[in-house]
Amino acid sequence: MAKKDQNPTLKLFYTLLEREDNAAMQLEDAEKDLMNRLLEASYPNSGDDVVEEFSRWLPIGRRNIDIARQRLASISLERGFVRQALVLEASDPSDSDAES
């Protein structure tokens, strides 16, 4: 097995990339949900019940977006730390291919 395949830091980096992509998709979905509901409530022929339902749902939608943004920011930050660790590992002269 190649050394890079055994590197736990690299494996973590790839895992975080996947988690970051998923978090970005969840944020996009939450934002789309808000926009779709807003458009539906804004439509001139929408009844009062649709507008009232939107106003009750809006705090939930905003909270969903906030949670998704925080999750994405947290994962992105963690990925950045792991990326820096990979850079440091790559520049470590004591970690040469001669040890393999």
Assembly status: single chain
Strand percentage lies at under 5%
Estimated radius of gyration: 22 Å
The separation of the N and C termini measures 11 Å
Order of helices and strands: HHH
Average predicted confidence as pLDDT: 91
Helix content: over 70%
- State the major sheet: none
- Shape label: rod-shaped
Q: Total number of β-strand segments?
A: 0
Number of helices: 3
Helix-strand category: mainly alpha
Ranges where pLDDT stays below 50 over 5 or more residues in a row are none
| Domain tally | 1
Summarize the structure in words.
This protein is mostly helical and 100 residues long. The protein has one domain. The protein has helices spanning 3-6, 8-42, 48-91. Helix 2 runs antiparallel to helix 3. The longest helix has 44 residues, at 48-91. The model has no long low-confidence stretch (mean pLDDT 91).
